[in-house]
Design brief:
This protein is α/β, with parallel strands linked by helices. The protein has 13 helices and 14 strands. The protein binds guanosine-5'-diphosphate. Guanosine-5'-diphosphate binds next to helix 1 and helix 2. InterPro entries: CofD, CofD-like_dom_sf, FbiA/CofD.
Amino acid sequence: MKGISTIAFSGGVGGAKLALGLARVLPPEELLIVANTADDFDHLGLHICPDLDTITYTLCGRANRSQGWGIEGETWNCLQALSELGGPDWFRLGDRDVATHLYRTQRLREGARLSEVTAEICLALGIGQRLIPVSDDPVRTIVHTAGGDLPFQDYFVRQRCEPRVTGFRFDGADRAAINPELHAALSSPDLSAVIFCPSNPFVSIAPMLAIPGMQEALLAARAPIVAVSPIVGGTAVKGPAAKMMSELGLPITPLAVAKRYSDLATAFIVDVVDGDQVARVRELGLACEAMPTLMNNDDDKLRLASSVIDYCHALSR
Ligand code: GDP
């Protein structure tokens, strides 16, 4: 049997869309989806992994598509009851979602690794692809803001990304080990594509790249590394990436994202509306193509996934 041919690095919403497209075009045993864990946090005694869960719910067809997170048809009785008790209700936990966190927390307490628990959840939900956390060790994004340092979910959910960002740090990253399954796949001769999904470059992709040895392992892989721009037409499709760029003094362009990956990536994909950026990205020494990258429905996801795979294969010839 062929091993992993494609590795996709993903955050939550943007990454999960392309991951679903890849899952539709590749045989399940060939795809490895690597999730950011720096958004993870402990809340109400539960261990919550927002990016892993968004990808899981997307792959098994249970994701709430309009909301972009959580489960379709979710009910909120637990949160309502918690709120009535005066408990913290700023992080919206649906009833079915709570079950995922309960199961995970219990298994971690029993000594299971996050990778094992993730595999168990995927198996139970009928997901045939390999979905793994980038590391089994805790890495936590801390957002530096004008008003002080904030744990990621405090910034992202409780304060709705309102504080002005001045930088980030990834606590624990220096002590984290790359998931051994990812390490093995990166050094496999079967590998033909490494994809950075259109995920937030600062808080979804950067924490994964901060793990010691990750950049070296990527550079040693015998496959092209292709990043898809999350910035389209001068803004982010969703989430705070554009706001972060402007607060960090960066232009809100695909070029500015490409610069962050230029020491690592082989190629960068911009959206067709940003065709004027192609020549400038190529000046960074990256290959670059423009293609439709907006994934508004499953056909879009499948089409982009096929195009990215074809592009990777063309690059490695
Ligand atoms: P999060 O962890 O939930 O914030 O999700 P990600 O980091 O994976 O994705 C967030 C990024 O995805 C944002 O910067 C969006 O601009 C980008 N994004 C979301 N949907 C799309 C899309 O359809 N096409 C492209 N090109 N980017 C997208």
